[in-house]
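Q: Structure tokens for this one, please.
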Amino acid sequence: RSRTAPRVVTSSATRYFSANPHVVVDKFVSSPPPTPSSANAEALRHPNDVHDRNANYSDEDSRSMAGVTASVRHNWTKEEIAELYSLPFHELMYRASTVHRMYWDPAEVQQCTLLSIKTGGCTEDCSYCSQSTRHKTFVKPTPTMKVQEVLEAAKRAKDAGSTRFCMGAAWRELGNKKNAFNHILDMVKGVNGMGMEVCCTLGMLNAEQARQLKEAGLTAYNHNLDTSPEHYPKVITTRTYEDRLDTIANVRDAGISVCCGGILGLGEKDTDRVGLLHVLATLPEHPESVPINALVAVEGTPLGDADADDETESDGIADVDAFDMARMIATARIVMPRTMVRLSAGRLSFSDAEQFLMFQAGANSIFNGDKLLTTDNPAFDADSSLFQKLGFVGKPAHAGPRVAPTEVTGEVEITQVKGMEQQYA
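A: Here is the predicted structure, written as tokens:
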């Protein structure tokens, strides 16, 4: 089986036979390859398609380095995740940072830009959202942007260094919006034609709509679960948790990468944060990316008004600090090692040092540009300065992530489990 990076079993590799005579467990470290020249250094990348990447490691059981063992699992229990989440902060950070280095190049960070192509006028009652018609906020409804306007915005984002362009529309679902959907398909084709990856967040999708978006060149689809199933009804009543899971299934079945995460600061408890991670980590396939957001409280929304009420004691609404974000990101990194963890909304409220803490916890993707739908975000120049300060490089568009340097140099012990027939075929 071919791999992008050298994965040669060394002469010191030890083979263990389990009690099952049809299974071979193979533990090895990859032999360090010759020092790559500048011409072929970029060749050490995984496939860009997340399904191809996962297929390359289908027989991998676990990875170990520096006393930490990790594996891609879908049978996590809430108790196991809660135990990780509750670790002393220093220990959680050590484990997450080690896992991050076993599976990723920590110097490479994906840069995404999010544009609201249709703002306000949404009929949903999400209690955090400034775009709902049920809340009196500063947001004024606007019609769907013209295709050319969107493509011009995408070009500006690309020129500023962004490699994934995300388009969001404030409505409950695409439904029968045929004219608008055709325009969105043209937007997807146009952005894809620029050499950028394309992501959309358009509310609920049916299977046929997902298929058409895939054919148009859509890379990923964002549909957040927001919080745990238990806390969700306290935040949203016009769309069920199952509705969201159905859309995620339609996207996944169409072959589109799933982007799905949540928001901290919705009045949830730690058990709800664990509950959200449990749902994500036990999906049939882990999301390609998991955005972790800190609520940006907006006046006029139920959660924004509750946060602004000085008479109300702290109840977890928008009461999110850098340690909360780092703890959530670190736990997500451990339970979903091959998933990209995106540091998303609320980043403007954190210092460079605090953001570095979150990158150390395992974040390897950000939204850049001065707006995230309707809320402020660090400008391109600020992020460029931050990348330079921290020694980060952006992930290229339509290129798989770099192979972890620790895998290339043989620092990681990899355990594989194969059927006997496969091993000796």
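A few notes: Residues 1-19, 33-41, 370-375, 420-425 have pLDDT under 50 and may be disordered. The chain has 14 helices and 17 strands.
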